[in-house]
């Protein structure tokens, strides 16, 4: 995607060929800063501290983390240590473990002398595949937006939650890919952007992305979506997911479940956009089986922003001594999901629907 007219991916090899560069998403929207990752430690910190985030991008970054590790220690022990270190950074997003398993399966049979070169090539391939997958998600989701336009005859109002745009992937995004495709096709639309507390990925990242692309949007407080749906101001909801079960349950940023309940009550279509690697075929019950990351309470008790004088500061929101809980994700049961938008098409949120698109998983 373009930033002030310059095309960017969210992760790319450095020009010297010995490091990787990323966009530091913790500095957006106030500052656009790129960061250089030179080793396994840098990569693990970037994932854990959310300089990169979003399930597909976490997986791509982990793949490059393995490549960086192999450039330093390509032994079996070095490979095991790299995969274990990266796997421990974020527990919920399945793409992380998918990418690590793919890298490990490729590299273990190879001689140590060839592992670094193969790892760099495979990490680049994972990134290219992600771009193509997300572009296809956009094309399939575009058809759903076109149907709403044909039925409504006016601008399509879409609500989204958290950030599932190009900043959450290598490029294009998942939930925002159909929106970008629709915008490029000239479809009149408007996006309601949930702020997405506590890290405000909607207000800080989704809004920034949409502005860069010229998509009309409005940032709203997280609790506004139900009110908008009651008054006919939302035509459809599109969100992303960090892990989807074999039966169609979806795990996304905390607050997604409440949006799905409101959409169900108001007969608003609720779609989830996801790439195939986000499906965890080993899980049946998302509420019971998906591990939910609990992050630092300070993400709830403090907030970061820019003052009128331009200074970026972090301020305390809560009374001293008040404890805070910070559950990062929740699970939306398949029964509340209208459809899943994948790179292979749109299906029902069910085992039968997913297997129709991924028959090799029978």
Automatic annotation (TrEMBL):
The record marks 162 as: Transition state stabilizer. The keyword Amino-acid biosynthesis applies. This is Methylthioribose-1-phosphate isomerase. Belongs to the EIF-2B alpha/beta/delta subunits family. MtnA subfamily. Catalyzes the interconversion of methylthioribose-1-phosphate (MTR-1-P) into methylthioribulose-1-phosphate (MTRu-1-P). Also catalyzes the interconversion of 5-deoxyribose 1-phosphate and 5-deoxyribulose 1-phosphate. Part of a bifunctional DHAP-shunt salvage pathway for SAM by-products. It holds the Pfam family IF-2B. Substrate binds at residues 53-55, 90, 201, 252-253. NCBIfam families: eIF-2B_rel, PRK05720.1, salvage_mtnA. The active site is at 242 (proton donor). Its EC number is 5.3.1.23. Pathway: Amino-acid biosynthesis; L-methionine biosynthesis via salvage pathway; L-methionine from S-methyl-5-thio-alpha-D-ribose 1-phosphate: step 1/6. The gene is mtnA. It catalyses: 5-(methylsulfanyl)-alpha-D-ribose 1-phosphate = 5-(methylsulfanyl)-D-ribulose 1-phosphate; 5-deoxy-alpha-D-ribose 1-phosphate = 5-deoxy-D-ribulose 1-phosphate. It comes from Sulfurimicrobium lacus. Keywords: Amino-acid biosynthesis, Isomerase, Methionine biosynthesis. GO terms for biological process: L-methionine salvage from methylthioadenosine. Signal peptide: none annotated. One of its GO terms (molecular function) is S-methyl-5-thioribose-1-phosphate isomerase activity.
